[in-house]
Specification:
The protein is an alpha+beta fold. It has 24 helices and 26 strands. It is elongated.
Length: 700
């Protein structure tokens, strides 16, 4: 048996930290896999049964990271970190302005004692500022060095420390140049990048936190002798009977035992029209009971509710990696030793060519600063986080972090029919050909069956405000329908040939009979709203569509004809899987859209897959993305956003690499001062972040 433990690791600052934890912790005895969620700064460890969380914490400490048990206080932790970074940024910004004013005076020609006074004033401002505002970097760098490793903060800390020491030496020896302005400005821009990163991660967490906040903290549970007792949500358990007043949110998933009401499911399905619920209806945590009190038998509570599953899917998006993120990880892994070697070689070269120690140190420091890989580290995660947030606001949840990359590469889209292109909810065609008395009897029979057509008929009659007639001896005949007695007459609802009518053939139909009168009722499964528009837009994006269905050929042909595409019918799950495998063998990259249990293999086999949030558990698990509601236009929107995200990621890589190619040789040649290096490095990070922020409108 395997187990999973989640730990909070606030010391994760960069891609190097991620790769270090995943690599080293993954090698520990009994650990199967360690995955870092950079957004929430958590490590999810899959391990064999019997390993305690304390042992995993010690293992992380050995690697160089302090870990805490995850208590679910993500929001509080993120806020504390953001507040601390903002304070540091404010101090660094205030100090930068003052030091720069003094530096401008020196650059303007101050000489002798005046210049010396300005240098000392700059030092008095810079040293306390660096000691306070530099804590996030020094703490991280010391933590890494103490355990014999490096991270991106090590060269930053070394660079800032060396700048300060060399500048102090310059002041003590009455030298003309001091770079306190460069050190403080470097911290200011680095902190600005950290604050931006923290804000974006907080935004990503906001979606999950906002979703979880929709679940009430608890509810009233019905006890022995109908006593009522308030229980916290974590104390609820399957089998308990929950009393839900009108206007209240449900605290757990369950089945209605007593009462009839309407439920607003928009939180889970995106559907704004309330659903009627009655005895036997399933209800979900977080949804709102609108009309009348209900007694609900709890089937799932706490972490097992549907809304908790959706939150986990949203979190999972931050724990997986795309191809470009893996490239950034590998680059970060070799970064620190490469930069230190480069700086040391520069120092040695300038010494050997006759430069003084002070000049060689200054040039080496400029190399250390200018090669800070913040832009490279931010290139992929910032773009993914911003794009994921935009898609989340549009009702599209990304389950796999690499899904955006694969979605951008898709060149063919295959649709399942029932529940995907259609709503999966049969609707009566035309007017209901029953008298008021017959409708009341039909409602009594239909309410006793779980057949989709019976449910559709009951829904139709219920909406008309008809109440059930008193029908006795109701029984369901397996495979045929439901029958009972009304005022001594036999009433039947079910297969037309069983009820006494001629079968209409391929059409979706049922029949109702009361005494001698027989009525055939025709149904259709309506297309989802905007299905035609979605298919047309996908075609315009270069994605031809096709239907893969297990339904009958005539039904598939009808839907395909309405959409102007082709379809394959009578396909088993293995058949759908085989079709996708065959297309992949021809070099096609298939986007599969499906929802049902039988679509699971096809969703897994496809290059990338999307399912509606109303899909079966298998469909939700197998798909890479989920969309809320009935609107299929979410699919072309996601494709367009994914392609735009990939373009921004490539641009960010080009910017980050191009910056280093141009700036590093200049720094090694001694053409860049530490101040200019700090401005250039910070500018590259700001440009990458600003470029990624354009994705906030990726779904428009």
């Amino acid at each position: 048996m395997n187990a999973v433990t989640t730990l909070s690791v606030p010391g994760i600052h960069c891609a190097g930290c991620i790769s270090k934890i995943e690599r080293e912790l993954g090698r520990a005895e009994g650990v199967i896999e360690a995955r870092v969620n950079f957004t929430s700064k958590r490590v999810r460890v899959s391990h064999v049964e019997g390993i305690e969380a304390e042992a995993l914490r010690h293992e992380l400490e050995r690697i160089g990271f302090v870990a805490h048990p995850f208590l679910g206080d993500v929001e509080g932790e993120a806020n504390r970190e953001s507040r601390d970074l903002v304070k540091c940024l404010a101090v660094a910004g205030f100090a930068s302005m003052n030091v720069m004013l003094l530096s401008v005076s020196v650059w303007s020609g101050a000489e002798g004692a005046t210049r010396q006074l300005f240098h000392w004033l700059s030092a008095l401002i810079a040293f306390p500022t660096i000691a306070y505002a530099g804590r996030p970097f020094f703490r991280s760098a010391w933590g890494a060095l103490r355990h014999g490793r490096t991270n991106m903060d090590v060269p930053i800390a070394i660079g800032v420390a060396v700048i300060c020491v060399s500048s102090l030496y310059e002041v003590l020896t009455w030298g003309p140049h001091a770079y306190f302005d460069g050190a403080v400005m470097l911290l200011f821009f680095l902190l600005a990048g950290r604050v931006l990163d923290s804000v974006m991660r907080a935004r990503a967490q906001d979606g999950v936190a906002a979703l979880l906040r929709q679940t009430p903290p608890g509810g009233f549970v019905l006890g022995p002798e109908r006593s009522r007792r308030w229980r916290a949500a974590e104390e609820l358990a399957p089998g308990m009977r929950l009393l839900v007043a009108a206007g209240e949110r449900l605290a757990a998933d369950g089945i209605v035992e007593v009462g009839t009401s309407s439920v607003d499911r928009s939180l889970v399905t995106g559907e704004s029209i309330p659903d009627k619920v009655t005895v036997g209806s399933a209800v979900l945590a977080g949804t709102i009971n609108l009309d009348a009190p209900l007694t609900v038998k709890v089937t799932a509570a706490g972490e097992n509710t549907a809304i908790a599953d959706i939150a986990r899917l949203m979190e999972a998006a931050g724990g997986t990696k795309s191809r470009y993120l893996r490239i950034a990880d590998r680059a970060a892994r070799i970064y620190a030793p490469a930069v230190h070697t480069l700086a040391a070689a520069t120092f040695a070269f300038w010494l050997l060519t006759g430069a003084g120690v002070h000049q060689a140190v200054t040039i080496a420091v400029a190399v250390l600063i200018i090669t800070c890989p913040c832009a490279l580290g931010l290139a992929v995660p910032v773009a993914q986080v911003v794009a994921s947030g935009a898609l989340m606001r549009r009702g599209i949840l990304i389950k796999d972090g690499s899904a955006l990359e694969r979605l951008a590469e898709a060149d063919t889209v295959l649709f399942d029919k029932t529940g995907t292109l259609t709503c999966g909810r049969p609707e009566l065609v035309g007017a209901l050909p029953l008298s008021t008395e017959e409708r009341a009897v039909a409602l009594a029979l239909a309410s006793a069956s779980r057949h989709p057509l019976a449910a559709a008929l009951a829904r139709q009659i219920d909406h008309a405000g008809i109440t059930s007639a008193e029908v006795i001896d109701i029984r369901e005949v397996a495979g045929q329908g439901v029958e009972g007695f009304y005022q001594g007459c036999l009433a039947r609802l079910g297969r037309p040939d069983w009820v006494g009518a001629q079968s209409p053939g391929a059409a979706m139909a049922t029949a109702f009979a009361l005494g001698g009168d027989v009525h055939v009722l025709h149904f259709s499964d309506a297309l989802r709203p905007d299905a035609r528009a979605a298919v047309d837009r996908l075609r315009s994006l270069g994605l031809p569509a096709r239907i893969l269905s297990g339904d009958r050929p005539e039904v598939v042909a009808t839907v395909a004809g309405q959409l102007g595409i082709e379809g394959d019918a009578n396909l088993s799950p293995q058949g759908k899987f085989g079709r996708i495998e065959g297309m992949a063998g021809q070099g096609r990259k298939v986007l599969m859209v499906g929802d049902g249990l039988n679509d699971g293999p096809a969703l897994k086999a496809a290059h990338v897959s999307i399912a509606p949030a109303s899909a079966s558990d298998v469909g939700q698990t197998a798909a890479d993305l989920l969309f809320l509601g009935d609107d299929l236009s979410a699919i072309p929107v996601a494709v367009a956003a994914a392609r735009r995200t990939l373009r921004v990621v490539r641009q960010n890589f080009t910017l980050a690499i191009g910056y280093n190619v141009l700036a590093v040789p200049l720094a090694m040649a001694g053409q860049v001062t530490p101040l200019i290096a700090a401005l250039a490095m910070s500018g590259s990070s700001v440009i990458v972040v600003a470029n990624a922020l354009r994705l906030r409108s990726a779904t428009r």
